[in-house]
Every structure is written in C-alpha cells, then in structure tokens.
Design a protein that fits this description.
The protein is 69% helix and 1% strand. The chain is an all-alpha fold. It has a single domain, classed as Na+/H+ antiporter like fold, CATH 1.20.1530.10. The protein has a two-stranded antiparallel ribbon with strand order 1-2. A hairpin with an 8-residue loop joins β1 and β2. α2 packs across α6, α4 packs antiparallel against α12 and α13 runs antiparallel to α14. One of its GO terms (cellular component) is plasma membrane. It is a multi-pass membrane protein. One of its GO terms (molecular function) is sodium:proton antiporter activity. Na(+)/H(+) antiporter that extrudes sodium in exchange for external protons.
Length: 417
Amino acid sequence: MTKTRAPRALGELLREDAVGGFLLIAGAAIALIWANSPLGGAYEAMRTFSFGPESLHLNLSVEAWAADGLLAIFFFIVGNELKQEFVHGELRNPRRAMLPIIAAICGMVVPALVYVGINIGQGDALRGWGIPMATDIAFAVAILAVVGRYLPPALRTFLLTLAIVDDLGAIVVIAVFYTDHLAFLPLLGSVALLAVFGYLQQGRGLAAALNRSPVPNWLVYVPLAFAIWTLMHASGVHATIAGVAMGMLMRTKPLEGEDADPSHLIERMLRPWSAGLVLPIFALMAAGVAFEGLGTMFTDSAAIGVMLGLVVGKLVGIVGGSWITTKITKAELNPALNWIDIIGMALLAGIGFTVSLLITELSFPEHPEMLAHAKAGVLVASFIATVLASGILMVRSAHYRKHGMPELRTDSGGSID
C-alpha cells in the first residue's frame, strides 16, 4: 500500500462507528484498570494536571480539557448529523421526531423520581436526584455500533435524538440547581457569535465573498468556533453545548457551484479524528473510577437510588413514555422498529458516566464517602445497563440480519422512510 493510500484507508476505517466504539471501550477499560492498579496515583495525577491560560478561565485539568474541549468535537458531529436527519432524513417527519424527544423527557423525570422516592427523608443524600437523569451519548452510541451492526438506522437516530435532548436537559438542571453562579455576559457573547456562525453558513453576502476569496475558510471558522466554545465555557454552561449548537447550524444543502454541502464535508473530515483520537482520550480520562467503597455502597441510599434510577428509571421512563405517547398523540414509532428494539435502546440509555459523574461531584462536595458510593453506583449501573442492553440488541441484530434488514450506516447515520 502506498503512503498516500495508507492514511486514506485508515480514515475510512475510523469512519466506521464500530471501530470508534471498540477504541472508546478500550480507552475506558485501560482507565478502569489503571485507576485501580498500584499506579492509580499516577493516573489521578495525570488527569488532574492543569494547564491553559488563566486569563481566559481556561486553566483546566487534563480531564476537563477532554470532557469539555475534545468532546465538543464529537458533539459537533452529533449535532451536525441530527441536522441532516431533521432536514433530509428520519426526523423530518414531526410525528416521528416527537417520539424520541418526549422519550428523553420521560427518561429524565422518571429516574429522578425513582431516586427521590428512595432518598426522601435521607438528608443530604436527596441532593443527588439529578445524577441518574443523564445518558452518556458517546458510550451509548459506541455500544450500539459494536453490538448492533444490523439494527435499523432508525434506532441509532432515535438514540442520538434522545441523548441530545437528555444532555440539554441535564445541562439545564446543572445550571439551575447545581451552579452557584451563571455568567450571563459570556453566555450572550457566545449566542451572538453563534448567530454569526449561522449567518456565515447561509453562504450569502459576506459569507459568499469569503467563499470566493483566496483566504481558506478554516482561518475564519476555527477562531470563531474557539471563541464560541470559550465564551460558553466561561458562562458556566457545559461547553459541549457549543458543539451541538454549531453542528445544528451547519448548512446541509449545496449552493450553486458547490460539489457538496459543508455539513457532509466537515463531518467526513472530522469523523476519523473523533473516533480515533477524541473519544478514546475522553474515555481514558472519564472512566477511571476507583472501586473504593464498592462493598459498602449497597447500604448507601444514594448509590441505590443512582443504580435503580439509571437502570430501572431510564427503562420505565423511555419505554413507558414512548408507548403512552403513541397512544394519546399522533406520534408514531418508525415501522422499521419494534418495541423490543426500544427496550434495548432504553437500557442502553442507562449508561451514565460523564454528566452523571459531574452531577455527583456537584451533589456531594462535603460528603466524601457518599460521593465515592454514588460514583461507584454510576459505574455499576452503567455496566449493568451495558450488559442487559447488549444482550437484547445482539439478539435483535441477529434477527434483522437473518431477515435481510439493511445494515446500520456509519457515514451519516442513515434513515429509513
């Protein structure tokens, strides 16, 4: 293979969701082993090492750079993919778009209620009610790609939509209930620059002049994107929301004279970097939870609430909310899917990790034992959810393979009409 073909072949390989999923799972496995080994201290020192300009409020730990910075690239791709689905694919049908959105809302409310029901009257343990609300989209999509190669593409779109709405809801919960101070000026600045980003995407006026000029577009878009992200981070809102917003603003239709639209071009360019670099590093930094207190966590109401909320609450909320919605509204489940597919996906949504761990930190800053138990609860619940979901989805994938259903597309998510 020539030197030119080798990078191209690697790029095509990394555009496969299953490959990115294996790399992310490998990163998480290394993190767990490392954090619980005799070298656990070195792991903790590495991910808590801080660097960056303090003047921009960006003197962050390596873990924060991975979760807030690198992961914004992944969220940009997801937002971009959802925009394509809303314009050209599965979600352009409002009756189908409604279902994962309502499922996401129910999948946040029910786990929180499960947690509150277990911890009511338990003092400060009640502060953790927001922990089981969040779904880790990166891990959930990776597991789906690994175990569900032959599942209908509509299921992946359902999961992406649900997880994005879930993340947005979790960020609102953090901002309202777990953040002491929200800086509105940087937030307004970020929104204003997002408006500029959206205007440039239209390809008219100044944007058209930019496209015709000899100046490469990236010299404008990269600093603009970094400014949007920086201001969003400074506002106190989770900075990955900037990635979602920019992805949703991408133009998905080519203009006259263009060979392809910017949405598909940028996705094709960034997806290998996301799968091969962003997600494995994120997993390496986020998944290193020490198993301290694992034996006593089952007597801690906070840990029990987290586990039941993520595994049982997510399942009941998503499946129950979806089913009831189809009965009382015009919303409909894609005919390519069955309810057993939604059950498997709902269990997959019980993978908490990043945002759940973040809310855990914010919930129990003065209770180290409760904090350790709740973190372990997130880890155990995510593992249980992964095993249960994988079992169902592997069986369903085999079923669809036997009956000749189309493979899950990995370049832009795909859709079934």
